[in-house]
Amino acid sequence: MRAFKLLILSSLVLLQVTALAAIKPISCKTNFGERSFTIEGSTVAFHKDKDGRSISSVMNSKTLASYTGFKKTIYKDGSRHLINIKDTANFNSDNDFLAITTSKGHKMTFPINCQAAL
Q1: Confidence at 1, pLDDT banded by 50, 70, 90
Q2: Would residue 19 count as lying in a domain?
Q3: What is the DSSP letter of 86?
Q4: Which helix (H) or strand (E) holds 112?
Q5: How do strand 79-85 and strand 70-76 relate by DSSP bridges?
Q6: Is residue 4 assigned to a domain?
Q7: Is residue 1 part of a domain?
Q8: Quick one: CA dihedral 102, 117, 23, 45, positive or negative?
Q9: What is the number of domains present in the chain?
Q10: Taking 70 as the threshold, does the pLDDT of residue 50 lie above it?
Q11: pLDDT band, very low/low/confident/very high, at 20 (cuts 50, 70, 90)
């Protein structure tokens, strides 16, 4: 019985590691290009175009996964950034958004267009 429990536990760990290895980066941008970022695992890289060069700031995030999607929370420049992806198999700007809340409580919500990076 003990060997069976160990086998089950090791199988679950192996499935989790395999699932993490299968995660592909997701590239997202707002409808009018105000913000763009790439999600890869537990990190989010925000991109800035400056003088024709792309500058990124990579940050760790807190993730709340659901059956079909996830929510990520990042604190950047004193503001809370919440990224909501409803369904990773079917990205849709009607359901996916970036909500930024400033330290003063002002909230801006941007629909985002995402795609799995190649």
Answers
A1: low
A2: no
A3: S
A4: strand 107-116
A5: antiparallel
A6: no
A7: no
A8: negative
A9: 1
A10: no
A11: very low
Tell me how far apart the alpha carbons of residues 89 and 22 are, in angstroms, rounded to a whole number: 13
The pair of structure tokens assigned to 66 is: 């659901």
Is position 101 within any domain? yes
Smallest CA-to-CA distance from 115 within 49, 28, 12, 57 is with: 28
Is it the case that residue 86 has pLDDT exceeding 90? yes
Report the amino acid identity of residue 53: R
> Is the pTM value of this prediction over 0.85?
no
Neighbours of 81 (CB within 10 A): 20
Structural domain that includes position 109: 25-116
Higher pLDDT among residues 3 and 96, named by residue: 96
Hey, what amino acid is at 59? M
Cα–Cα distance list, 54 to 3, 57, 64, 77 (Å): 53, 10, 29, 18
What are the counts of helices (DSSP H) followed by strands (DSSP E) for the chain?
1, 9
3-class DSSP state for residue 59?
strand
